[in-house]
């Protein structure tokens, strides 16, 4: 059965679902910036930061739903002058990553403000074939908040 993928705003999601998601060690394995335990206060601060992006830029991270159920968060967020595409899924839904990424890229293609998107991957992510198939080009290693990431860029125009 095909899962219907939809995007909604993060404040509509039960904080307990986000706590469980972000507390999973399989998620933390590929998130070097993820530190500390998640609580209702952590989730509230996280959502406030994501909603600030929406107020400032008119776009930000979404909650991602499969058949109406929360499976993760991600989307397009402005980092400086660039639009970064991030995706953090629950482990049982990692396989939907390419499909969700394609949906977010289609959104970026339709938005004239976004001539390209960037992707920051931790070096722990060994399988990067999906980015190659999309046509993303490797830019190089960068430090972000003191952590090493591999940066890719995909033209959307």
UniProtKB/TrEMBL annotation:
Transmembrane segments: none
Top class in the EC scheme: transferase
Signal peptide: none
GO MF annotation terms: acyltransferase activity
Record-annotated N-acetyltransferase domain positions: 14-136
Entry EC no(s): 2.3.1.-
SUPFAM superfamilies linked to this entry: Acyl-CoA N-acyltransferases (Nat) (SSF55729)
Gene3D superfamilies: 3.40.630.30
Keyword list, A-Z: Acyltransferase, Transferase
UniProt name for this protein: GNAT family N-acetyltransferase
């Amino acid at each position: 059965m095909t899962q219907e993928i939809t995007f909604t705003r993060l404040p509509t999601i039960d904080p307990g679902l986000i706590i469980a998601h972000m507390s999973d060690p399989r998620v933390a394995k590929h998130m070097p910036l993820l530190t500390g335990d998640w609580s209702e206060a952590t989730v509230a601060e996280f959502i406030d930061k994501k909603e600030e992006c929406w107020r400032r830029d008119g776009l930000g991270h979404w909650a991602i739903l499969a058949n109406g159920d929360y499976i993760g968060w991600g989307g397009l967020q402005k980092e400086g002058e660039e639009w970064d595409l991030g995706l953090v899924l629950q482990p049982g839904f990692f396989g939907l990553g390419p499909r969700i990424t394609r949906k977010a890229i289609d959104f970026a293609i339709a938005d004239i403000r976004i001539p390209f998107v960037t992707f920051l991957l931790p070096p722990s992510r060994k399988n990067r074939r999906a980015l190659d198939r999309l046509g993303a080009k490797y830019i190089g290693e960068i430090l972000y908040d003191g952590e090493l990431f591999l940066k890719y860029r995909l033209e959307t125009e």
